[in-house]
Design goal:
By secondary structure, the chain is of the alpha/beta class. The chain is built from 8 helices and 14 strands.
Length: 228
């Protein structure tokens, strides 16, 4: 049975190109041309993958990404014609897994789709709960709370924290984290900085006096286990 993909793109020519690429990658594509229709289809069709344009006639693709991520675990690749770092980082910050910039080649997009689809998600033993003081991470339920407050994390942020917290005090190199969380990644390692920064902000918002993710200069990052 073919996997299902959703294209949210208002350009018919780009949509047709995306459909061909997705079909070659083994997906059954659905098409929407607006935020409203795209999010509605995402709810009903439950796609495995969403290709989402950043600029849509009735709204911003970043807002659409945020809404879809609130109810869907689909992989999301954002497409933009605005070669602007702010747009890219904002998109990744609300839960996008990757992005491509127009114009893109079908070969590149196909490779990115395959890479995104191979990225591991948390596969923990049933009912695994990690407790470090007031830090409580239910890995199987993909839930995190600190001092009793639930922390809303994107899929990638949770995956990153899951890897780090599985081995407290172990220093992971930047490449090790990219390999474990992103799998085959075609861009530079700046994407890791973005997600670590987003994750730190969310953790410090509820626990400002505790640094859960430490930078090991010249190497990478490690999880700092707080006192029980």
């Amino acid at each position: 049975m073919a996997k299902r993909a959703l294209i949210i793109e208002d350009s018919p020519d780009v949509s047709k190109l995306l459909e061909k690429v997705l079909q070659r990658e083994g997906y059954d594509p659905l098409v929407a041309d607006s935020v409203e229709s795209g999010t509605a289809i995402a709810r009903d069709a439950e796609p495995n993958l969403v290709i989402l344009d950043l600029s849509l006639p009735d709204g911003d693709g970043i807002e659409a990404c945020r809404e879809i991520r609130s109810f869907s675990d689909a992989y999301i690749i954002m497409v933009t014609s605005r070669d602007d770092e702010v747009d890219k980082l904002l998109g990744l910050g609300v839960g996008a897994d990757d992005y491509v910039t127009k114009p893109f080649s079908p070969r590149e997009l196909g490779a990115r789709i395959r890479a995104v689809s191979r990225r591991p998600r948390a596969e923990a033993p049933s009912n695994e709960v990690r407790t470090f003081g007031e830090f409580i991470m239910d890995v199987s339920a993909r839930e995190l709370s600190i001092t009793g407050d639930a922390i809303g994390l994107t899929k990638t942020e949770f995956d990153l924290l899951e890897v780090l917290s599985a081995s407290p005090r172990r220093t992971f190199t930047r490449q090790q984290l990219i390999d474990q969380v992103w799998g085959d990644w075609f861009g530079d390692d700046h994407i890791l900085n973005v997600h670590v920064g987003n994750l730190r902000r969310k953790l410090s918002a509820v626990s400002p006096n505790q640094s859960y993710i430490e930078t090991v200069r010249g190497v990478g990052y490690r999880f700092h286990q707080p006192e029980a």
